[in-house]
What we know:
Strand order of the largest sheet: 1-2-6-9-8-7-5
Order of helices and strands: EEEEHEEHEEEHHHH
Radius of gyration: 41 Å
Helix content: 25-40%
Number of helices: 6
Shape: extended
Largest sheet: 7 strands, mixed, barrel
Oligomer: single chain
Amino acid sequence: MPRPLWTGAISFGLVTIPVKVVSATQDHSIHFRQVHLEDLGRVRTRKVCELDGEALSQDEIGKGYELSREQTVPITDEELDRIPLPTAKAIEIVAFVDADSVDPIRISDSYYLAIDGKVAEKPYTLLRRALERSDKVAVAKFAWHNRERLGLLRVREGAIVLHSMRWPDEIRSPESLAPREVELDDGEIERAVQLTDSMALDSIAGFRDTYRDALEELLTAKSEGKELPEPAEGEEREEGKVVDLMAALNASVEAAKESRGEDGGGEATVHEMRPRKKTASSGKPAAGRKTAASRKATGQKAGAKKTTAAKKTTGAKRTARKRSAS
């Protein structure tokens, strides 16, 4: 387990449970340094005073609260330590509530509570069993970094977890962000519910950070002087494309079923809601307009008539000559 971040005790009525707080999560993000492009020397951030421009050491830096752009009030760590803080070394449980009554938006960071010494084993197990049997979570107050915080205790795989929570006034209201009233029929809503059912999973444990995997592959290739991997082709999406909502839902449901190996029961397509373009001609040729084939046929007929007329004229001339000779 990682190094403890805080040591104290859980206050559970008259029960005291010595605990150590350790981080329940790990940051696997890939971090970069700022470097000088010419020689790859590291560029560090210097703490410089805005008034005299001089770099400062850590012991020259203190805290101050800015009342306005012109006035700042200095505050020392000793002054902060003198402020009464009953929960300075305790996680004080103040209530038990149903887990469903806690809005997830209020949950912040998560920590494991580990026992601090053998004396904590029995009361720790007692609290864990009580939470499991009651199907409730504990609301607690605790202090961290000279600030009182609200916390939530629950059980995960036999360990008690402390979730740091935000106070109610720290949550912004989404009222102004809500969309205007739109009309939906029951068929569209029912199809959307079917889509949620077809995409339902028992667990999200199988998801992984594919971007981080690709970034690690890129960094490995560069460090070993190998050819850089080709970027994966993503699905192109047209921005601002208006689609038939019901057709899109149908197609989504069928695609979800196919991905699970279920029988889709039919094909569905997305229909774009765009006006149809008027074609210049229909199946029949327009009136007053002759096709190339008809013009050719007409020309052939005219040529045949001219040939017949010429033959008749030549024959008449020959007959007249014979009569005059006789």
